[in-house]
Amino acid sequence: MKKHFPLIVKIALVSVYIIFLAGSIVRMTGAGMGCPDWPKCFGYYIPPTSEAQITWQPNTEYQKGMIIIKNETLFVAENHLKTSTDFNLDNWEKYTKHEYAKFNKLHTWTEYINRLSSALAGIPFLFLIVISLSFWKENKKITLLSFGAFFLMLFEAWLGKTVVDTNLKPAIITIHMIGGLVIIGLLLWLVFIVSTHKKTTYKYNSLFNKLLIFSVIFSLIQIALGTQVRQFIDEQVKLFGFENKQYSLLNPNLKFYIHRSFTIAIVLVNLGLFYLNQLKNLGYKLINWIVFLLFLETITGILMYYAEFPLGTQAIHLLSGAVLFGLQFYLLLQSRKNTHL
């Protein structure tokens, strides 16, 4: 099984990026509360497809834990029951974790697919930790990184529940995203360790390596600023409603302007890396993709601000940012002095 370990690491990495994609679509569509409970959805393992399923009905059977909406309030069935002609409050318990009581079929299934992708992503992580144990005597770092990524995935699952329970509290969503980036970093570290090509085609350059360190730090700062801007947008959406997203950046705070202006520094540093790589013929092909993703990030950022969030721009902006971080982190591993012949 050890020979399959590199493939399993890559599958785990792709699964995390799929989660980022699903999560970005959830945020883009405002579907984060499509399922008011966790891990089930309105008390169902397979989400409801019509409002009638979660609306109180007379002479209807309900299983314990099923959730209904009545009078714009969520109620949970305390036991298996069959309703009569009148609503009996004694059979139901008010859902107290939050007060969001709306049903939108599209939102419900979007959020459900997001959760399903997260659950399926756990499968390669299980294989990851099991096989990593066989590397313990050979390279303890492989085992430790694998278990670190696995336990962070468990933490992320718990945090996903907390996101729902707190009705999409912006700070929790930010931590949720940062946790995902840390997992990406751990998996890329594993990919690098088990790679058979890491010492073949690259030239070490001290200036390139130092500039790259600044580039990674700048990107992390930019991501942190971006999550703060996203928090501001979330608060505006709650104020004006999701259908009025054009007001999301009405009178933005200082962090938005810092986030926007800091892009210039990031672009200049990475263009410097691109130029140095070409000038010295260092062989780092990843820098080409990094410059492309920076261009994509900049364009989508401009479109969101000036064109009032065109469809898909939020998802592309978030996902490309996560991929950009991953490429920069892996390039940093490649450019270290002790990784070269």
Automatic annotation (TrEMBL):
Q: Name the UniProt key words of this record, in alphabetical order.
A: Cell membrane, Disulfide bond, Heme biosynthesis, Iron, Membrane, Metal-binding, Oxidoreductase, Transmembrane, Transmembrane helix
Does the entry feature the keyword DNA-binding, yes or no? Answer: no
Q: What is the lineage of its organism?
A: Bacteria, Pseudomonadati, Bacteroidota, Flavobacteriia, Flavobacteriales
Instruction: Spell out where the chain crosses the membrane.
Output: 7-26, 112-135, 142-159, 171-195, 207-225, 257-276, 288-307, 313-333
MF GO annotations:
metal ion binding; oxidoreductase activity
User: According to its UniProt record, in which pathway does this protein act?
Assistant: Porphyrin-containing compound metabolism
Q: How does it sit in the membrane?
A: Multi-pass membrane protein
Keyword Membrane in record? yes
Note the superkingdom of the native organism: Bacteria
Task: Note the InterPro entries from the entry.
Answer: COX15/CtaA_fam, COX15/CtaA_HemeA_synthase
List the record's Gene Ontology CC terms alphabetically.
membrane
Q: What is this protein called?
A: Cytochrome oxidase assembly protein
Q: Which GO terms describe its biological process?
A: heme A biosynthetic process
Q: List the subcellular locations.
A: Membrane
